[in-house]
Design goal:
Blueprint lengths: L24 H17 L15 H13 L10 H7 L1 H8 L7 H14 L5 E3 L2 E4 L1 H6 L11 H15 L14 H11 L2 E2 L1 H6 L9 E7 L2 E11 L3 E9 L9 E8 L5 E4 L6
Antiparallel strand pairs: 1-2, 3-8, 4-5, 4-8, 5-6, 6-7
Pfam families: CHAP, PG_binding_1
InterPro entries: CHAP_dom, Peptidoglycan-bd-like, PGBD-like_sf, PGBDSf
Organism: Flavobacterium ginsengiterrae
Length: about 270
């Protein structure tokens, strides 16, 4: 795999605890981030806490609640074993063995596995597009300006292609820019414009990438096509929301009407 920054998100330097001599602000922020992410999926768990890098009484109580919810010894201390439980969704997303008879199936199954582990961004220090999921997709980058939809798409294709011993960078450059991928598609003649796609749906295949066009050479959002129907496509896409925003906060399964939207399609066939 090319995109391996996620591995750094799975570790802390030392056990973290209230008034701990080895407390590290970044590690405490990681812990607080995962406590808050756990609370999103388990709203009655009592693990939501501020993400400020300070392991105070609120964080300690959130840790105790997390330990209780997961059947762990309740001591309020986060060692690597407890942290492993906190970060298990990320580890499952990137390291679960994915099966598939071809690259397209591998891409779809990889995307579905990420979706099922609930990737979600956080707001840290008043900055959106932050947190461990964003950093993992964006190779350590995060913050309001770092839209992460293409980072998500490339992470999925990289992970799937690597299972077959293929390097996704032979298909497209490592980038976080929809424009870069769109331009690459035009240069390689593997980008189907929306006008053509609307009249010939056979050109759109599961595993391909959609690019939402703003202007002919400006694309503002992307995702992976998972199914094609008469007028609609199903997708899995990052940095979106229920309204289909290009700057939302989650990975979601979406349905888009490609005959009413300016969706260009980038083919992965040459990598297959």
């Amino acid at each position: 795999m090319q995109k391996i920054f996620y591995q750094k998100e799975l570790l802390i330097k030392a056990p973290q605890k209230r008034k701990g001599a080895d407390n590290n602000k970044k590690d405490v922020e990681k812990i607080q981030s995962w406590l808050s992410l756990f609370a999103m999926q388990n709203p009655s768990s009592g693990t939501a806490t501020d993400i400020d890098g300070d392991f105070g009484p609120a964080t300690e109580k959130a840790v105790l609640n997390f330990q209780k919810a997961n059947g762990l010894p309740q001591n309020g201390i986060v060692d690597q074993n407890v942290f492993d439980e906190l970060v298990s969704p990320l580890k499952n997303a990137f390291e679960t063995n994915i099966s598939g008879s071809n690259l397209r199936e591998l891409i779809l199954n990889t995307a579905q596995n990420h979706l099922e582990n609930h990737p979600f961004e956080l707001v840290i220090n008043h900055q959106s597009n932050t947190g461990p999921w964003v950093r993992s997709y964006m190779d350590g980058h995060e913050g309001t300006d770092w839209f992460w939809c293409m980072g998500f798409v490339e992470a999925i294709i990289d992970q799937a292609a690597s299972i077959q011993g293929k390097n996704f960078k032979t298909l497209m450059p490592l980038t976080y820019s929809c424009d870069t991928v769109g331009t690459t598609g035009l240069q390689k003649k593997i980008l189907t414009r929306y006008q053509t796609a609307r009249t010939n749906s056979a050109l759109i295949k599961p595993g391909d990438i959609f690019l939402l066009q703003k202007t002919p050479n400006d694309w503002i959002h992307t995702g992976i096509v998972t199914a094609v129907h008469a007028d609609t496509i199903e997708t899995i896409e990052g940095n979106t929301n229920a309204g289909g925003s290009n700057n939302g906060n989650a990975v979601m399964n979406k349905i888009r009407n490609y005959k009413q939207s300016k969706l260009d399609f980038f083919s992965i066939e040459s990598l297959v």
